[in-house]
Structures are given as C-alpha cells and as structure tokens.
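Batch job 17 of 40 flagged for manual review because the log was empty.
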Amino acid sequence: MNTLRRICFLLLLSPIVASLALGQSDTLSITKEPATYHCQAEQFRASKLILPVGLVAVGTFGVNNGWFHQVRNEVREDILRWHGKHTSIDDYLQYAPLVSNLALRFTGLPARHSFREQIATTATACAVMGVLGFGMKYTIHEHRPDGSSNDAFPSGHCARAFMGAELVRQEYGTWPGVAAYTIATGVACLRLYNDRHWLNDVIGGAGIGILSAQAAYWLLPLERRLLGWDKNRDSALTVVPFTDGHNYALALSLNF
C-alpha cells in the first residue's frame, strides 16, 4: 500500500478513531430531574467543532484545489481498477445508524435521553443536515465522477450515515458509537466504489453529519423550554378506579 493509499485509508477511518477519543474524553454524566435528562452533550464547547468543521473544510478545499484533484483522481483510478458490479446497498445502509439511534433503547440498552427527546434531537439533526447539505449541494455544483449530475458535494448518503452514528454515540456511549461509525464509514467507501462521489465529497458529508447531530443536542435545552417539557414530570401512567355506586370505571392519565 503506497503513501497515497495510506493517507486515504486514514482519512476514511479518522471518524472511527475520533469516536473513540470523543467517547473517552466527553463522558456523559446524567442527572435525573423532573422531566429532564441533562448531560454534557448539551453543553456547547468550541473544541467539539474541531472534528466536524475540519472535515467540512477539507472536503470544501478539495472541490477546486488542483493538488486535491490529483489525489482524488488517483483514488478513483485505483478503485476503478478492481471495480465490479454496481451495488445499491449504500442506499439502504445509510439509514442504519439513524434507525439504530431510536431502536437500540428497545433492546434494553439504556439511552441518555427520554424517547421524546430522542425524537426531537433526531428531527432537529435532520433539519440542520438538510439546510447545510442541500444548501452546499446547490451552491457549489460539483460534478459527480460518473458524470450523472452536478450535486456531488457534499455526499448526502455520508451526511445521513454519520449524523446517525454521532446520535448513537451521544445516546448510548463510545462502543455502540464505534459500531455505528463503522457502518457510516462503510457507506462512504461504497459511495466511492459506486463512482458516485469524489473523496472530498464523502469527507465533507461526514463532517456535516457529525456537526448536525451535535447541533441538535445543543438546541435541545431550548426545545425543552419552548415545548414546556421542563415543567412536566417524568413519563408516567396513572390508573385511578372510580364508581358512582352503580357503574365502575378506570381513569387513565398519561404524563409524558
């Protein structure tokens, strides 16, 4: 494996390595209060921007830079030498981390937020990713390597996959996050294999996905206040029997 391939290999695996580092240095401490699960993930720190912003910067740099064009062309040529039949696995695999974010709690794995807050962060992350991703796609107009269109940068598949991976890491911890990041990296490799994206496209998409997930947690305290969740108690089902002397009934009260 030559130096170029080593560099590309490390670039593609860097989010997995970062998930390990972030998981150890950004340990989440949870304090259960009425209707609220507070954790450090909701606290904005500029240091958290280093990885995602760095990936977006590298990806954007590669759109027009001549040296990076040479790098990504060589990567594409290497892949095409052993390219086989086109696969559509990446079209489905891109959603696996996102689905896992909501589904893992039902396997008994403890989540760090309530289910409604998970839905809120997932929806917010998707909205942020949509604005950033589609905004850049239809502003930059980079041609795909297969010549099919001019909306290559950033990779939407990678943005969705890495967004889901970061949501999993934030909710369930480092090792589930590593598994999700591995799937997301597989999506990035498949986008290159299918000749749908350049190397800088998948790098930029990964950064946008991670940044979108982090932004969703930073906005969660604001959403709690706007939706009045801070005023409620924890989710609970109350059953109260009553009778008028002739009829019997149950009154159900669900607080969530």
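Reviewer: the log was empty due to a logging misconfiguration, but the result itself is present. The chain has nine helices and four strands. Unflagging and moving on to job 18.
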